[in-house]
Structures are given as structure tokens and as C-alpha cells.
Protein: Sulfatase
Amino acid sequence: MAALLLPDRVERLTPGTFTRIPVEAIAGVALLLVLPARGRRVVAALAGTGLGLVTLLNVLDMGFRSVLVRPFDPVLDWVLFDDAESFLSDSMGPAVATAAVIGAGVLVVALLVSMALSVVRLSRVVVRHRAVATPAVLVSGTVWVLCAALGVQVSGAAVASRGAADVVSGRVQQVRDGMADREAFAAEAAVDAFRDTPADRLLTGLRGKDVLFVFIESYGRSAVQDPELAPRIGAVLDDGSRRLGAAGFSSRSAFLTSPTTGGGSWLAHSTFASGLWIDNQRRYRDLTSSDRLTLTSAFRRAGAWRTVGIMPGVTRAWPEGRFYGLDNVYDSRTLGYRGPKFSWTPVPDQFSLAAFERLEHGRPGRGPLMAEIILTSSHNPWAPVPTMLPWDGLGDGSVYESVKEAGKDPEEVWEDPDQVRTEYGRAVEYSLDSLFSYVEKYGDDDTVVVFLGDHQPVPTVTRDRLGRDVPVTIVARDPAVLERISDWGWQDGPKPGPDAPVWRMDAFRDRFLTAYGPR
Structure:
């Protein structure tokens, strides 16, 4: 009964949820009463296993909705369990990750086996007490029909429940929608206004500039508009605006609507770069196996830039680098960092930017650069948070040992949602301060920076408010660069206000290539 009535959202786990009447129980008992003995045992075992799978799907839905604000996709989301194990290993240690994987596996097997045995046992009890079970089914069925007809509810939930049937039908429809989406995506991807643009007509308005696309992990609208977070993060943005202004830089800001929230950064990165809406793993796989022109590969095709990636979150082979048109990718193993991990974050943001300066931007005699830089210090679980250090004192990162020791333990932070929100804010402040300090120190007349968030943080931080928008800002010292986007209507400064323009993230590629193409 509990399995049949189990909701798919944590907030619906209330006593009232379990006071309803599941139609599947009534129909199931009726079926067991009329089946012969051999068939009854087989049907009971299969029904129990199926009910165990439905329970598992509901539990997975609770987890996915709590983090990614969407239900679990039984076709596409299995790959995320490997990411989850890696996240646990990096954040809590390999022992905790291994124990979690073993524990989850044991629980899944125990759930399926015990549910099957439970329904088989129930079938025997029902048949043995047929004289009581038969009228009970008739009465329960009548009550269910009346409650359904009258719309009777308890705590906002219908007493006449058909939750398990809805789960099954919903999953079938989800698979059908996935198949239809693949065809729709192929049609969308076939349209590309810039596929055949000659190299000499790409990005003519940025020739000779160093263009940096910088993603700040989990930097969403909540960071600049939530009443609890915005005052401190806003102060960092205001200070950054003042410092950049003193260095001769100006900026314009707006919002982009991300295809994901709570996680799945690669979906946002690929949406931003490709001009296609990438909101699931199948679309991502299809995209990265294609020859779609991306923002970064457009710079490479133009032949006027060296294209590099600073990817501190990448810890193993990353074949997608070829799809993005990057001449070289520096990951956590090649940035020269020998310091400690900050929970999940392999390399502090300031060190990643310093490594970019050392490896590429600061090399004498180099040509123009296009760099995609991922700042990861604001990645969940947001503890411990690094602090800013003198740029000439970073060395190989060993200096961060004492910084990490002085930080907070993520397990303690996550015991209190208020602490989670506080540490999230501190992490975003650090990432922004690292970027502003870098541009202030190393930027010049040819520096153009586009920085943005990839998605909103998890619901523990957002409290399901302010949607999926992320701030986006363009910074440049050359007035001609910002003049090119004067008709976009973006607001002055690095902090977009509540009424700033909002675009879908997949709209950015075409608008950017158009604005900085031939006039």
C-alpha cells in the first residue's frame, strides 16, 4: 500500500498522502481472486517486481526533482549515476562513494525481492480468506468510484488514487516523447545560418582581440536577485564594476534562460556554443557527434585566433574538445596545480586564471586568443571555499593547503540549508572576485570577456524561485566592441536588474556572430 501511494516529490511525503485508496490494489486483489493457483503465483511475482520498479522510479524522481528540478528519465539519465559517484568521491572521499554505491545496490535488490515476495504472500492470504476479500473488493471499488466522481480530497490529494498507473503510463509517454524529440532535434540541427559562412566573413568585428568566454558554475539569477544573496554578491559586482571602470573597461549585462538547473553544466555549455536547445543527454550526444558550427569553432574556422580551453573540472579524456574546435585543452592534470582539492573543485578559480596567463595569455609574441574558461569554485557543495591570494604568490598551488584547512567541512554545511545558502554566496563571490581581479591586472585594450552562469544552483539555494535565468555580461575596453551590441538593449554594468532583457541561451550564438560579423 505504501509503495502504491508513494509520491514522486519529497514535499508530498505527508501522512495525508497515505490515507488514499489506490485503484491498483483493488484491481490487483480482484485479479488474484479469479486466477488459477499456478497463474496466480506467476502474476503475483511479476506484479510485485513491477511494483518494486515503480517504487524505485518514484524514489529516483524525488532525488532528481530535489537537485535537477525534473523527473528521472529512464532512457537517458543512467549516465548521470557515474557522475554522481564521481561527485561523491571528489566531495566526500572514495570510501564514502564506494559505500554509497554498494548500499544503493543492496537496497535496490532488497526492494525488488521483498516486494515480489510480499505480493506472492498477499495472494495466498487473499485466496485463503476469499469470503472476506471478495466483498472487501466490491466495497472498496464502490468507494473508489464515488470518491473519483465527487473529487474527494485529503490534504489536497485525491482520495481515489491511481498513482502507480500514472507512473507507468507517464514513463511510456516519456519514451515516446524522447523518440519524437530526436527527430525534431535532427530537423532543428539541419538549419544553420552560419554553416557556409566563409572564414573571412566570420567575427570580423573582433579581429585582433583576445576573446574569453568564461562560465561561472551555478551563477544564476538568484545570485543577483534573491533578497538573502543579492546584497553581498551585488556588492562584489558593484566593486568589480568600479575596479574595471578605473582600468578603462565598460560592460553590458542581461539574462539568458538556461536549458538546465541544479546541474548538467555541459547541457548549458553546448546550448550556448551551438545555438541549439540541448536539454537532455541524447541531444548532447547527437550534437557532439555532429559537425555543427559552435561559437568556439567559428573562431578556429576564421583562422585569426588560437583557440584554447581552460577546463579544471575535466579529470580524464574529453573527446568533446574536438567538437568545440579547441586547439588545446588544459584540464586539471595539465594546469600545473599541485595543491589540494576544495571538495569537488579540483583547482581554485584564481589559480585556473593564473595558469591561463602563464600558459597562453602571457606568452611573448603570441597572436590573438579565443579561450573558453570554466570557473568551478562555485560548484556544489560550496565548502570549503578558497580565498583570494597575491597573484605572484600562487606557485604550484601548495599554498592552498592552509586555505583549505581553514575552510568549512561540506558535511557540516549541508546539515543546515541556511549554511548551504551562505556558503553558496561566498563561493560565487570568490569566483566573481577572481575574474574581476584577473581582468583588472592582465586585461588590455584588446581584451573582450563574455562571462555568464551555466545554470541556477540546486533548490536548497533557490527555493524553487526565480526560474532558470543566468546573468550574462560582456566586458571590453574598446568602445567599438560594445557599440556593436548597442541595439541589444542590455543594461550598463555587470549586474543585470530585474527588468534586464532575457533571451533563451540558444539565441546567443547567432546574435553574437551577427553583431560581430561584417556590416
The chain has two domains: 2-181, 200-476+483-515.
